[in-house]
Amino acid sequence: MKPDLAEKLQTLRAEKKVNQRQASKDLGISQALLSHYEHGVREPRLEFIVKAGEYYGVSADYLLGREEIRRGGTPAGGGSSELERLDETLGLLFAVLGELSHDGLCAAAAVYLGTVAVNIFEALAQPEVSYDPMRDAALKAAEAQVRAEAGRAVGASGQEYTVEALKSRHPERSQALSEINDKVSETVNRLKMSCDIG
Questions:
Q1: How far apart are CA 123 and CA 103, in angstroms?
Q2: pLDDT of residue 32
């Protein structure tokens, strides 16, 4: 384990002004295990890192030393409110993936999100290229795989993952999720109207 993960866990707990006993209770682990994590004796699992990130208001990438910015809603460079909503919603997605801990779904989500990211980078590199049917097909195939794996993961978990259920379980991110969900619904409705579909 990277020594700075242990240091970050100690620092964040101190900044939150909670003792180890309270933090371990809030995080759902024993005080001894939290102490081991904070002193670098044991390496935490992904589920704990995601939960600790939510608890302390930072990203898992920050805890792991993959980004230097504490993501409490503001991406590097300040960002706009759209980026902040996206940041919060992706944080929720990663938290849910961590909760489900389903390898197939995580792999499918990585391919899907990776495909979206590559498409955005490609648009930045070649803005004059307006549409590539093969990239669209790759995105649709990745989405189909996510849906198939999500069905297996949710079936095994027994929990609901509707927007309302997520807002109830993750109230700290419910505003961003609602706003992005509303925007997507508006876009879909506009497309339906322009195509004269139900």
A1: 30
A2: 95
